[in-house]
Amino acid sequence: MAIQDIQNKSSQATSNIKVTIAKDNMSATVLIKSSTAEGFMPSVDEIIKQLTEAKIVYGIDKRSIEKIVSEKICNQPVNVASGKKPTRGSSAKFQYNFDTQQDLKPKEDDKGNIDYKDINFIQNVGKGGVLATKVPPQPGQPGITVRGKELSGPIGKDIPFKNGANTTVSDDGLTLTASCDGAILFTHGKISVNDVTKISGDVDFNTGNIDSKGSVQIGGSVKAGFIIKTDGDVEISGNVEDCKIYSKGNIMIKGGIIGKGDGEIVAVGDITFKFAEGMKILSKSNIYAGDEIINCKITANNEITVKSKTGKIIGGDIKARKLIRAADIGSDAGTATVIRVAHDTKLMSRYTEIQKELIRLDEDKKKIKEALGNLYRLEIDNKLSEKQKAVLVKFEDFKKELPQEIEDLENEKKEVEEELAEMLDARIIVERKLYSGVKAYFGIVYLEVVDDREICELSSDGNKVHISAYHK
After folding, report:
1. Sorting pLDDT into bands at 50, 70 and 90, what band is 111?
2. CA nearest neighbour of 251 among 267, 229, 230, 231
């Protein structure tokens, strides 16, 4: 072969190399036009030379280029260079000067007695006291484009204090202090300092209903028919009759709850009491009982625990997301007792939606790949109409956006799966006796206990409820 022929073939091969750089300069592709399959395949060096002429200097993938040449990949864009994306710095963090994870479970002594005194229920702070400090967001790691341009790493997310009533943020935004004496309320990340309303005796006709923006301490009991509403915590030294209590914090009842079906106790935080009968109780967190729960309708987002060694759940409808625990559940008399765990209709519905959306996006991805292949072939043959050019740009943009959309959904799916996995780990623990007649639900799957069982644990595989021996 003459030198001139070699030069002509080399020139033709080079002219058939199409280098495309992404709009954000973070990737580059090479497309070899089909005419090179007739023997004018460019060399690795020729492709790299074209990349250099296109000012591509970073992240060149030589293996991909070698694959193009060795496998004679034509009419198909192949990624040959990738930039390094900048990474975001760590977000702001908070350091708290009070206990954000109070353990409100009643303490049990060696004799099995429940002690409600040794609980730091209401945490107080003085005016000017530092409640929390903030560690500022940190700068990120820099990135670089395929053309060698350095990209600064974005600073982490700055999260402001969620400061509530009677708190002050410093001028530099890094310190949160109390602007008055009071009780600290910490709910869903929000910090407030509330005045404490103290009632030495009972809540009855002498006091009337209580509506407080702060926390409430009651030295006596709450009589039937009265209502307590508070934005803070509620601490009651005595008993609670058929009344209504609504708290945006925690509720501590050192005595018992004696209802006849008309009362209601609702809290955003934990609810703790000695015993309860005939009451509707709802917590968005946990519910802890000392001795027994009888004929109540109780719901907790996390767990329900009857702490005493002789603690009982008899009758009613008891529902928790993760755990229900007691010494005895049910009774010799066969009182209708329903126990429910692992039930979250909204979460299951969202999981189904995510799965359907991911399937749809995967189908879109395949359709776009096929459509782009057809459009690229028309482009090589110079047969693209103006309308098709616009469609090509639109599809290329959509192709770039698709991975992020899929990644976001996959991340959400993972989070939901973790929550569902927690529910699959849901348990009903009976430390002494489970009586026949009890109905145990795990989501929509349920089991009616036929024979009495001792020291057992109920779980589910999603299809069936299983009873096994419980080992502490």
Report:
1. low
2. 267
Q: How many residues does the chain have?
A: 472
Q: Using the structure block, give the residue that is written with the tokens 């040794």.
A: 118
Helix (H) or strand (E) holding 16: none
In the chain, where are the structural domains located? 3-82, 93-191, 345-424
* 57 vs 51: CA distance, rounded Å: 8
Placement of tokens 């990738």 in the chain: 82
CB hemisphere CA count around 158 (13 angstroms): 8
| 457 within 8 A of 429, measured Cβ to Cβ | yes
* pLDDT classification of 7: cutoffs 50, 70, 90: very low
Helix 44-53 to helix 3-15 angle, to the nearest 10 degrees? 50
At 32-76, the pLDDT tens digits run 987 544 557 889 999 999 999 999 999 999 999 999 999 989 889
What's phi and psi for 68, nearest 5 deg? -55, -45
Q: What is the mean pLDDT of residues 311-340?
A: 94
Beta bridge pairs of residue 337: 316
pLDDT digits over 360-376, tens only? 988 888 888 888 888 88
DSSP 8-class letter at 303: E
DSSP line for 96-128: ESS-SS---SPEE-TTS-EE-SS---SPEE-TT
Question: Measured between alpha carbons, how far is 359 from 364 in angstroms, rounded to an integer?
Answer: 9
What is the CB neighbour count within 10 angstroms for residue 69?
Answer: 16
